[in-house]
Recover the amino acids of this structure.
């Protein structure tokens, strides 16, 4: 993994996570541990309303955490209840935290290749509906990262398990002097929780 990314990971590993949040994360730990035990593919689909901010941060950090803790056969996806675009500040934030991101299409909804290691496949980041053909059709965990998506998706076809792990929307800081710091903080919050989840798998 890249040096700057490893420095960020050290911050994620020491970030305090409350017992209340750990309890919210436990169903995800259980899902991953069970799939690993059964030697099945582990597909995680992080879902938010617009698939523009929190769902992408969760997707990226969960994929990085799975590689860091050497949990095999994990593929992380993201989706929304509607398609918009990956918000540019999310890209800038992840770059500043050590990921190498290349924009591979310049349409209204750009596609990004997010690399965390020179020799690993990139994470593909772009906005899509949660039931897009790009995402798994069955046997996956649907992780709802915002309360609107949780309320707006009463049924997610093909999801083996539905888990609500909501985060505050960094969008509240858009076009303010706090924008960079709020996005950085939210990315670290989400990253710390995804690293906590994967650090627990082999303890099960």
């Amino acid at each position: 993994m890249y040096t700057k990314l490893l420095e960020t990971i050290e911050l994620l590993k020491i970030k305090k996570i409350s017992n209340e949040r750990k309890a919210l994360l436990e169903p995800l730990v259980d899902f991953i541990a069970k799939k690993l035990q059964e030697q099945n593919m582990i597909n995680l689909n992080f879902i938010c309303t617009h698939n523009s901010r929190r769902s992408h941060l969760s997707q990226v950090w969960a994929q990085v955490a799975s590689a860091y803790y050497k949990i095999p056969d994990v593929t992380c996806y993201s989706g929304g209840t509607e398609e918009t675009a990956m918000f540019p500040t999310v890209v800038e934030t992840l770059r500043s935290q050590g990921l190498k991101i290349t924009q591979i299409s310049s349409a209204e909804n750009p596609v990004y290749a997010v690399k965390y290691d020179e020799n690993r496949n990139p994470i593909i980041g772009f906005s899509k509906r949660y039931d897009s053909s790009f995402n798994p059709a069955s046997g996956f965990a649907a992780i709802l990262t915002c309360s609107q998506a949780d309320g707006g998706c009463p049924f997610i076809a093909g999801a083996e398990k539905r888990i609500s792990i909501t985060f505050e929307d960094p969008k509240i800081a858009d076009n303010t002097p706090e924008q960079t710091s709020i996005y950085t903080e939210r990315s670290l919050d989400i990253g710390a929780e995804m690293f906590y989840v994967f650090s627990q798998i082999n303890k099960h």
The radius of gyration is 16 Å. The chain has a mean pLDDT of 95. The beta strands are 42-48, 74-80, 100-105, 111-115, 123-125, 140-144, 159-164. The CA atoms of residues 3 and 50 lie 32 Å apart.
